[in-house]
Design goal:
This protein is an alpha/beta fold. The chain has helices spanning 14-22, 32-41, 54-58, 67-76, 97-105, 123-164, 168-185, 191-196, 201-220, 277-287, 293-310, 318-323, 333-349, and strands at residues 3-6, 26-29, 46-50, 88-92, 110-113, 231-232, 239-243, 249-251, 264-266. It is built from 13 helices and nine strands. The radius of gyration is 26 Å and the shape is elongated.
């Protein structure tokens, strides 16, 4: 595990103590300017961050003057900072709750109160403080892997969307949804939210990530407004639905999920323009990305669309409503895996330009 200690007292014994306690090799930086430069360039898996640097910080009562706060804000105010997804444990010699709370509110994950042996008079507190540090490191080690997996996928999607999607507003919306989904997936949940309010962050995050397909579809089809009856792929001109001069609808969407797609004719109705999202995406996969029917079924319909159809909060199917409690999906490993899968799928679909 790649760990960075940022502490002006790192070379006065704190680095050695923490290495022995945590049984980890730790790289350290002891001055503020070097630390600010380091966190912008080098990615770590865990950062141990001292709150105050030097005499000037100790003479101030405003946390915004503290070196640790400035470093934290540098990392967490920019989603594209290489350490945005890196867990951060604040190390502080003070137990002033308002300072700790402020650091947690601004993106830190946990804290450890520095205790000098000469002033550690409360053995029970020292033991609890030590135990919390070990628990935090163990938990955040796993959390770091998950965050970085999702964050790297998001960065790749952001870069691909800049290259392949022409409409600026669609690019912005995709970026916003990626950040919202990440925030939901890794937000700190209170016991009340978990036990009483049944908050389910994995499933909600999946729904947000899934909804990005709406933006992608709009970028790939040549449609001027919501009620256009014609569905034409912008990049190659493939017509998936059109209207004859007599008002008859010619559509491939009726059989788009079948092995052999055919053009169906049907009468013009007021809802003829309403093509569900999964059919829209199947059209892109088959007629622009040139996926086979079997690949579309295995990588999209069976793996993602079927899961979307059974999750709660969108349109639960009958079996789920009759047999499954909402709490059953809480903290779901499957839901987290589906988050990684939908992001990987978005990466695949963005690899070819939309126009």
């Amino acid at each position: 595990m790649k760990v960075l200690l940022i502490d002006d007292e790192a070379e006065r014994g704190w680095q050695e103590v923490l290495e022995q306690v945590l049984t980890l090799e730790i790289f350290s930086i002891s001055d503020l300017d070097s630390a600010l430069e380091e966190v912008e360039k080098v990615e770590y898996e865990l950062i141990l961050l001292d709150l105050r640097f030097g005499e000037q910080d100790h003479n101030s009562r405003n946390i915004k003057d503290y070196g640790g706060y400035k470093i934290l804000k540098t990392i967490k105010s920019n989603f594209y900072n290489v350490n945005f997804s890196t867990p951060i444990i604040v190390i502080t010699a003070t137990n002033k709750v308002w300072n700790i709370f402020s650091m947690l509110e601004n993106g830190a994950d946990s804290f450890y109160v520095k205790e000098h042996p000469d002033f550690a008079n409360d053995i029970a507190f020292s033991r609890q403080n030590y135990s919390q540090l070990l628990d935090s490191v163990a938990t955040l080690k796993i959390e770091s892997i998950k965050r970085k997996e999702i964050w790297r996928s998001i960065i790749q999607i952001h870069e691909l969307s800049q290259q392949s999607i022409e409409n600026q507003n669609i690019r912005h919306r995709i970026e916003e949804k990626l950040k919202i989904g990440y925030g939901i997936l890794f937000r700190r949940i209170t016991e009340i939210e978990k036990q009483t309010l049944l908050f389910n962050k994995e499933v909600v995050a999946f729904i947000v990530f899934w909804s990005i397909l709406e933006e992608i579809s709009h970028s790939y089809y040549k449609r001027e407004n919501e009620k256009d009856l014609e569905w034409i792929l912008a990049s190659n001109g493939e017509v998936l639905q059109s209207v004859d001069s007599d008002g008859t609808i010619k559509t491939k969407f009726s059989t788009i999920k079948d092995e052999f797609v055919k053009v169906d004719s049907k009468a013009l109705t007021t809802t003829a323009y309403q093509i569900n999202l999964s059919n829209q995406i199947c059209g892109i996969l088959r007629y622009q990305q040139n996926w086979t029917h079997h690949r579309v079924r295995s990588e999209f319909i069976d793996k993602l669309n079927r899961y979307r159809n059974k999750v709660d909060f969108i349109h639960s199917n009958t079996e789920v409503i009759l047999k499954q409690k909402l709490i059953d999906n809480q903290g779901s490993i499957e839901a987290y895996q589906k988050c990684t899968s939908i992001l990987s799928f978005i990466i695949d679909i963005l690899h070819l330009p939309s126009a």
